[in-house]
């Protein structure tokens, strides 16, 4: 019954004017360059027409289109249904769909060439990098997984047998959970020619012989040696060692006649991202969360639009816009990129700073937790951003204690403006021997952050890797706070940690060299 209802809906013009919840728009075929064949002659023998109908009834729609004249050329497309031999696009599709049996309808219901929006399909022309920037839940992961699987399985030409593919994410966990196992990941979209996942070797193997290997931005050197003809990079904007990992990947992308890579990411105005946008070999596509509304929970779009619509955060996280740094901000991404190191010396002192959320707002707030240390040259090194969102008091206290134990820190610095002595009590509930030093803010956030920003300008602070969420707040912080209106929790914790290490210490005697 459902399948027959689908046929009726398609005959009613859904493909030319899709309704919410049914994503099979005819515009995709036009965007991909599909063209219509001349209309079948009216005087064709009835027997031949009946035989043709039987032959095509069990084929997926995309196969029928290719076999029956919707071939990849750019001539004779007619949407108006005017005089001549050409049928209008909706009319010819309706004609084909009306002759499909249940098996063909099922196959067509999962045909990515029909289901995808035009911006989710590979761009035309000669390119090396396809940069797909999109909002949260916009369908960028699905687009990446479908592209990789189609090439690896042979549905799309360009890879060939025994092709080698790199799957690069921020961490191995992200690569496994998002790019492979997720409902929109490779195993989720592989309806045929499914690859086998070899967990111990961190790779996927297709029946065609193609192999995709997982890599993490936490270990750029692991890309030294392997070679590839294809790469899919996910969430480039939050890679820990973005530039080093990207450079190592480019040296390995050397197999085949035309190596290509796809980047699916929420946009962040990092130096690497900005350089990719300017690269002549990059083709950029932007998709919005709202474009994928039919596949998201009811009311989600309205909820996030009401809260973030029109803000810088909303434009980035929902509309997929690449937002530049604030003109009145204290930090610049280029500055932070230059102060990022992979290796640092031993620490003489390490602190973990905690900025608890306001009481009663924990479910909707972030608890800022940042670890920083002091090296032998008196330079501060930001070691980790362990901030947690939506955590209970015991949850963020446990996160702070874990970071304290991880770095064998000297003490925890906790702001008590929001909770008073309760902050110390909560921390010591999860770790009774935790040394806690409490601090109370007597000046505004901007005034407290200015001296810390000056330390960055003097080169007295470096970052041990990229901390995307923290750096987003740093570069979006102005005299009026964050552009989203939210509390800069991560930045507050950073300010407390660096103030404790560099601005709160008494001067120590030092040997001066003449």
Describe how the helices and strands are arranged.
Blueprint: H1 2-11, H2 27-31, H3 46-56, H4 61-68, H5 89-97, H6 102-109, H7 112-115, E1 129-134, H8 140-153, E2 164-169, H9 172-180, H10 186-189, E3 196-198, E4 203-205, E5 211-216, E6 230-234, H11 242-252, E7 260-265, H12 271-278, E8 282-287, H13 300-308, H14 312-317, H15 333-338, E9 347-355, E10 366-375, E11 380-385, E12 388-389, H16 393-407, E13 411-415, H17 421-430, E14 436-439, H18 445-457, E15 461-463, H19 468-475, E16 477-478, E17 481-482, H20 489-503
Parallel strand pairs: 1-7, 1-8, 2-5, 2-6, 6-7, 9-13, 11-15, 13-14
Antiparallel strand pairs: 3-4, 4-5, 9-10, 10-11, 10-12, 16-17
Helix pairs in contact: 16-17, 18-20
What labels would you give this structure?
eight-stranded mixed sheet, disordered N terminus, disordered C terminus, seven-stranded mixed sheet, 514 residues, 20 helices, globular, single chain, alpha/beta
- The level of helicity is 25-40%
In percent terms, what proportion of residues is strand?
15-25%
What gross morphology would you assign?
globular
Number of helices: 20
Q: Which parts are unreliable, with pLDDT below 50 for 5 consecutive residues or more?
A: 1-86, 506-514
Structure notes:
With 514 residues, the protein is an alpha/beta fold. Helix content is 36%, strand content 16%. It contains 20 helices and 17 strands. It has helices at residues 2-11, 27-31, 46-56, 61-68, 89-97, 102-109, 112-115, 140-153, 172-180, 186-189, 242-252, 271-278, 300-308, 312-317, 333-338, 393-407, 421-430, 445-457, 468-475, 489-503, and strands spanning 129-134, 164-169, 196-198, 203-205, 211-216, 230-234, 260-265, 282-287, 347-355, 366-375, 380-385, 388-389, 411-415, 436-439, 461-463, 477-478, 481-482. An eight-stranded mixed β-sheet has the order 3-4-5-2-6-7-1-8, with helices on both faces. Strands 9, 10, 11, 12, 13, 14 and 15 form a seven-stranded mixed β-sheet that branches. Strand 13, helix 17 (421-430) and strand 14 form a beta-alpha-beta unit. Helix 16 packs across helix 17 and helix 18 crosses helix 20. The longest helix has 15 residues, at 393-407. The model is unreliable at 1-86 and 506-514 (pLDDT under 50).
